[in-house]
Amino acid sequence: MNEEFDFDTLAIRTGIHRSAFNEHSEALYLTSSYVFKNAQQAADRFGNREPGNIYSRFTNPTVTAFQERLAALEGGEACIATASGMSAILSTVMGLLKAGDHIVASRSVFGSTVQLLVNIMGRFGIETTFVPLSDIAAWKNAIRPNTRMFFVETPANPTMELVDIAALSVVARTAAVTLVVDNCFCTPALQRPLALGADLVIHSATKYLDGQGRVLGGAIVGSRQLLMDGGIYQFLRTAGPTLSAFNAWVCLKGLETLKLRMEAQSKNAQALAEWLERHPAVARVYYPGLPSHPQYELACRQQSRGGAIVTFDVVGGQAEAWRIIDATEVISITGNLGDTKSTITHPATTTHGRISQAERQAAGIGPGMIRISVGLESVHALQSDLARGLG
Is the pTM for the entire model greater than 0.70? Predict the structure, then answer.
């Protein structure tokens, strides 16, 4: 696909490989394996002497179509799709690092990411140091001779804190460290980390890339050297944390409406954040699109919109937060996000409930915090639903 095409066209037209039936919509290939013309072709495929599909653990036309489309949207050379967002992170770490290596990560990353880096990777001799996300000096000071990776989420889940990707990329490049950016909250519709200097982009395709809460999926986007030659593809091919063809097809179709959804949901989120900021029962609102956000200027430079996640603290702590959540009738009480249906959760006892209280405090996650993933319902309906508990 011509690289000069705009985002909207790439989201619709990239990754189309029509079969002999010449179908218009992208085909769904539900097969575990592929038939070879003869023994020689089979040997050549397995020996990487001839391109082509071999086995759907690591080659599938539908998955390939999704990979090509997402890579085009992120501005990357290649993409590897995985079974979930967490398996994308696992594949990145296992594919690029070894025992004795060191990671520097933001202390405000997703709770399951903390568990993966500390409790699982730590058992294999990969150590992680956590630093404040926005403090560039802290990242620089945390570098050791064996540091091989920086891992960040920006905006962070659920505090909506940002890091200057371009500034952090300079630190990473100077130290020969791979900068990995989780772009789940913005997607390439609002932010393109590779263009700002990141080496790899991580996605939980489960969220906005699907966009309707239907399937699980993950993806890693970046250079061919890091993905295909650096060990990530070999890990996926051998270990098999693979995206299924059906889930790839769902996410592939989701990419067609990604920009439309992200812009509409961000518009709703902006209006809801402004309304919450004026409410007397709300102590603080965390939303990059608000001038009151401490990194508002960075958000305006780095993102095209504020995004569709609004987090806020309520007066009264956990008891009051739970009461507000339980009073909702429209917004779904669930830990997922990125859906066209708005969702609400209490991070301290759900998504970040497995990390320690001290870790939550360091990440800025308090007992009165509520996170809303704003969907496509009317803003009036969402405000009325929250007003029932807020008073």
Answer: yes
